[in-house]
Batch of 2 targets.
Target 1
Amino acid sequence: MEFLLALGAAFAAGAVSGLTGFGLALVGVPLLLFVYDPATVVVLVMAFSLLINAAVVQDSWRKVDRSLVVALAPPALVGVLCGTEVLRVAGEERLRLAVGILVVLSALLMLRDVRLPGTGSRIAPAVAGLLSGALSTSVGLAAPPVVLLLASRGLPKANFRATSALFFLVMSVFGAAALAARGLIPEGSLPLAAVLLPAALVGKLAGTALLTRTPEGAFRRITLLLTLATGALGATTALLALLR
């Protein structure tokens, strides 16, 4: 039963990422935590992210906004290194609560077609990348800054999906290297990932097939609702921790 849940989690994570280019961790992590310990889940999600994002990039390379990824990625990698210091100064739960509330408010505004100020500026990608990297290592909310930037700029669904997938592929490669360098890959997690990866890949194929049937407006709502869910989940878990 537990293995079937893990297969379902891998499939669902792959499907969401295959459709949108992000959201893999949002779907996969909560389900996989019912079955495996957090350290194993981190490795599984990282493996899924490497495979699925690489597959999305491979089938949509011509749709990638490469100049935008180049603007996002270097600041994000700097942010990854700074994230632990941000966590030390601010405290994880308070920071997660504040960021979660801000993400929820931003997504709600964009669902009402209110454009976030400054997202069209030349410096916006650097800021979004830096925030994404810092939040990834401080509170585990890497996606919202980049997703909100792409959505606010009105990227068509194919370009949105391809660009976000390439960005998060770069982040995944960096994260996997960091895990390996620090010896944080639990014994047995890689063979387990290899067993679950086919389910994630089948999910990706299902998500890609769904993309062609999803209108631009619906795609935008899906991405913003996923971002809203990310922020709400982060804020809720932080608030519950602070109230204990």
Target 2
Amino acid sequence: MATIKIVTDSSVQLTPEEIEQNHITVIPLSVMIDDTVYVDGKTITRPKFIELMGQAKALPKTSQPPIGEFIELFDQLGEDGSQVIALHMTDAISGTVNTARQAAQLSKSDVTVLDSRETDRGMAFQVLTAARMAQQGKTKAEILTALERVKANTKLYMAVMTLDNIVKGGRVSRVTGLISNILNMKVIFEMVDGELQVRTKGRGMKTVNNFMRELIAKLEKIPNIKEIGISHVAADKVVNGFKADLEKALPKVPVLVRDTSPIIATYAGLGAFAIMYYTED
């Protein structure tokens, strides 16, 4: 039966149950650690990646899926006449969305590729919206309109404990990294139209704790928060404390806490975490 099928990439933060129940196809990226290549989610788990990254001689290298894999996947999904909507992480982090767009032009199927301008759980909000609407029989136009609304109402903040990885990976300037490392600063980024911008920085965990306290106080005053996600890189103790604070302040809002993907962990570095939420109009 012809329908609309949803594709995303493995930087997304989805539980296995969400993927299965909503019939979402996740195309994996790859990561190379000391000359060994792993396929995200297939030949390496998130906890194992964090362990190996901590032992690695050099910063792991990530790579997007080859265009051929995209074409094959799109052709397969559209064989029955289905349309395909593919949502991928912001092009400021990866060229995955651009490869998907090239593949869509070469595919035999009707494929619409979208830059979510987000990643991790921030992207998952859009992916889940699309998948659930597709199962309800909504049209592509209806889904695309809803996705724009979710994207506009999503916030992502990321706290980085050391800028070594994110600077080496080219995601922020080396000047910012140098200053922050000399002063032992913690940096809070905000995702603004798909790009990470410095929101605040300061010495020690006090900066992070103050930011989170102010953010939670702000969230308490917002009546229509749909969901909150916290993703992290070996920061269980810190984020579980923030989760408890959020659940106390917002008892009716679900909070999902999970390890982030190897793709995001590579650039965020050990100890980093991100908090994401979206609101309904």
